[in-house]
Amino acid sequence: MATRGLRIGIAGATGALGSEVLSLLHTRHLPVAQLVAVAGERSLGCDLEFQGELVAVATELPALHGLDLFLCCAPPAAAPEIVRAALRAEVPCIDASGAFAGHADVPLLWAAGGDPVGAQPLLASPVDAALAWLPLLRALAAGPPPVAVDATVLEGASAAGRAGIDALTEESLALFNQQELPEPRVGGRPLAFDVHPAGGRERERALGASLARLLAAPPVVSARWVAAPVFVGQAASLRLAWERPVETDRVAECLAKAQGVELWSGEGTGPNLRAASGRDVVLVGAPEVDAADPRTLRLWAVADVLRLAAVNVVALAIGCLEARGALDRSGLH
Predict the structure, then answer these.
(1) Which pTM was predicted?
(2) Is 205 in the same domain as 242?
(3) pLDDT in tens, 98-116
(4) Are 121 and 155 in a shared domain?
(5) Looking at the domain assignment, is residue 198 inside a domain?
(6) Per-residue pLDDT averaged across 42-69, rounded?
(7) Which of 61, 174, 182, 305 is deepest in the core (most CB within 10 A)?
(8) For the chain, how many structural domains are there in total?
(9) Is the pLDDT of residue 134 over 50?
């Protein structure tokens, strides 16, 4: 089957996730003949480069009729209106904002991990810590799966998108130059050279609900997020509990064989965010039995969640286009 030029739309095109998705689409050599790029008011008058050409960025949603696929990388608050506009135009849509991850009637898929993709009108991609935990928990499902996960999650500024990265940059420069800090643009408080709570019960419930949809035997989830003064990435101290004593060798073997997981073999006690930057895998330190409970293991895991999100969006896009007969996978990399 010959692949014709594709017509792709993307909302949040100039944001952190949208930029990463477009970079991957270019790397995978997707045959895009037309790109419709949409972003917020801050991108008024901007162009972006895609596959060697400049593309004008629209700040209002244009007519979408005739597109082969629309990718929603916009913030969660803006996503529902954008997605509904695509569906009204009868354009299949992939939501990467998280706004539809909890909708039972919308398939939530980890295509990068092998979930089959059909020709449904709307697909949702996992977000947040689910992207980093899925490779680990699916790998551990090869034996008795853990029944509970307790975690402290440290996340970089990219969790708030381009605005978070820009805010951390501006705050860091101001402190280095002994200037007054700018008004916080993300989270209501400065992030540079500081840490603060970034998520509680609501994010915990959303994470648990996503894992319940994506795993055959989901664990009970307890998690808290901490904003850390780094630009990209997410690190987690995980405490995994089983119903009976667990063998670290078995867990390590499962993780070593898992798709999307890499056991740390470098220096020190475990990987850091710099080691995970730009990688398509979750880096995991050696599992250790909790000294207080032989049924519990501790893991240190780091990932570039922004990169993992983009990888999954592109995998969903390719699967969706292929299921609709619009794409021949043989020419992709």
Answers:
(1) 0.93
(2) yes
(3) 999 999 999 999 999 999 9
(4) no
(5) yes
(6) 93
(7) 305
(8) 2
(9) yes
